[in-house]
Amino acid sequence: MEKYYQREIECASREQIRAWQDERLVKQVRHVYEHVPYYRNLMKEKGVTPDDIRSVDDLHKLPFLTKADLRDAYPYGLLAVPLEDAVRIQSTSGTTGRRVVAFYTQHDLDLWEDCCARAIMAAGGDKGDVVHVSYGYGLFTGGAGLNGGSHKVGALTLPMSSGNTERQIQFMCDLNSTILCCTPSYAAYLAESIHERGLRDQIHLKAGIFGAEAWTQEMRRDIEEKLGIKAYDIYGLTEISGPGVAYECSAQTGMHINEDHFIAEIIDPKTGEVLPDGEKGELVFTCITKEAFPLLRYRTRDICVLTHEKCACGRTHVKMSKPMGRSDDMLIVKGVNVFPSQIETVLMNRGYAANYQIIVSRVNNSDKLEVQVEMTPEMFSDTVTAVSNREKELESDLKSMLGIYADVQLVAPKTIARSEGKAVRIIDKRNLY
Amino acid sequence: MTVKQISVFLENKAGCLAAFTKVLRENDIDMRAMSIAETPDFGILRIIVDDTYKTACVLKEAEYIFSITPVLAVEVTDEAGGLYQIVQLLGDNKINLEYTYAFITRKRGQAYMIFRVEDNEKAIDVLEKNGVHIVSQEELDEL
Q1: Mean pLDDT of all residues belonging to chain B
Q2: Which of A30, A275, A422, B26 could crosslink A281 through cysteines, CB 3.0-4.6 Å?
Q3: Candidate from A375, A383, A388 with C-beta closest to B98
Q4: Which of B42, B63, B67 sits opposite A382 (nearest CB)?
Q5: How many CB atoms sit inside 10 A of residue B88's CB?
Q6: Is there a shared CATH topology between the B3-69 domain and the B71-133 domain?
Q7: Residue A329 has what pLDDT?
Q8: Cβ contacts of residue A110 below 8 Å, gap of 6+?
Q9: How many angstroms separate the CA atoms of A390 and B8, rounded?
Q10: For A85-106, how does the pLDDT look when each residue is reduced to its tens digit (9 = 90+)?
Q11: What residues of B are in the A interface, CB distance below 8 Å?
């Protein structure tokens, strides 16, 4: 039985959703125009006034916001309420340069937690569950978001935060955690650690809600198998609120975007032109219910596809595909586009764990792509020839997948930083930006 | 008539061999023989030890990637031409050597070679027929 947190909203008719969006967008644009001089100037530069925005059809007239704007306007430049009305700050995890800070009123937190509650119930969570939150708590939105969502659902919440794997596993066994929330790389690490300790029989997990970084279907299957759970994807970003902007349902065919709060568009990242449903492009969000930090047409840099196809779960909100890469962390090596997920797929197909690092450098004005992969006992042999052949095998697969040569190096196990937050997948030594 | 060799995956980086031998020292493991094959990226360390089972447990615990391979330990007269006779026998019988390395012992003043071949049975047959002494695991443990 599919579970819903706010069924009347999650399964509302398309007409109803559209009516909410039209009304809320018009109101929001006025709110931002009046209270955020930074955005008002952008609108003026584009020759747009709030009167020009009468419905979602006019959304394309509004200027975009990017991460660069957030840095320029740091820290208060995009705040739309008096500072005294804000009750919380969250910040993005470890991006280079200036951090991005986002503000929330109590009402904002409330709606954000509702979004996370929808995600937890879509993953089968309910009052009787023990929600084990291993996302970091603190400035990072992961912990706070799922924690709040779990409270709203009425589940028993374990605010584990990240790290201390021993304690994570002990609590999981002793307190019968049923739903695990963390990054997919940490889920994979936990699964591995549980196996090493022979504790698979003592965990009672039924589902996992994993997000905040890219992961492949292969990785999903691996985690599901190792932990005996169903693994659900969740999507979000601090700039827009945090996790729960979109979430997966039992159909596991994309993530429902909470359209009563966020309007999604797909644009051509080069031209900024809005693309029709089903076309791959950059995801753009407009916040229509947020008070303190209501970004309009914020470019996520995530490349994905939207679909309005009817979903088996009964929800009517538009679905986004798993991001297929980011328009900004996509690597261009020797003029060829390289997505880390492609490399991950090659490794998983050959039976390697997703423990790898991509190193791009420039030697004699020519790009060099190196992929370091952790050795596994199955791949090892006592002769140099056999081990070298393993490397060549991967090099050949990568060549067919990417179209360019990548130098594969097998390295000792656990030598690639498998952080308990986000995995460092790419080291670009070229300093191209 | 084979002896057990432990092969260990090591990165070709400063300190890797030191870290490895430290593990052996800490667990009081004595090496009978050792060789390293290296590439620019990685090395394969091959050792014959006094207690293979214990070493395997220790290495697993220390999270090394390793494998155990049956290899031939052959007694070689410690004089010019000693090795020649043996490898010629193998060559004449089309037995391909994957790799080989030598070690000596204090106790007997004798030289020994480790041979890794594809077909152990065939090599044993050829060598024994020609009077070459192949050292058993038990004998090796006594050295």
Answers
A1: 91
A2: A275
A3: A383
A4: B67
A5: 12
A6: no
A7: 64
A8: none
A9: 16
A10: 999 999 874 333 456 899 999 9
A11: 5, 7, 9-11, 16, 37, 39, 41-42, 44, 46, 63-67, 69, 98-99, 116
Hey, are the CB atoms on B9 and A409 less than 8 Å from each other? no
What CATH code would you report for B3-69?
3.30.2130.10
Domain ranges within chain B, ordered by starting residue: 3-69, 71-133
CB of A378 within 8 Å of a chain B CB? The answer is: no
Q: What one-character-per-residue DSSP string does B12-60 give?
A: SSTTHHHHHHHHHHHTTPPEEEEEEEE-SSEEEEEEEES-HHHHHHHHH
pTM of this prediction?
0.66
Distance, in angstroms, between A344 CA and closest chain B CA?
Answer: 21
Q: Which two tokens stand for residue A160?
A: 């584990």
Domains, chain A, ranges and CATH? 1-326 (3.40.50.12780), 331-432 (3.30.300.30)
When pLDDT is averaged across residues A290-300 and rounded to a whole number, the result is 97
User: CB distance B9–A380 less than 8 Å?
Assistant: yes
- Output the six-digit token pair for A269: 């990242």
Beta bridge partners of A186: none
From the candidate CATH numbers 3.40.50.150, 2.40.50.140, 3.30.70.260, 1.20.1250.20, the one assigned to the domain spanning B71-133: 3.30.70.260
**DSSP tally for chain A: helices H, then strands E:** 11, 20
Q: Decide if B5 and A387 are in contact by the 8 Å CB cutoff.
A: no
| Backbone phi and psi for residue A236, each to the nearest 5 degrees, phi listed first | 180, 170
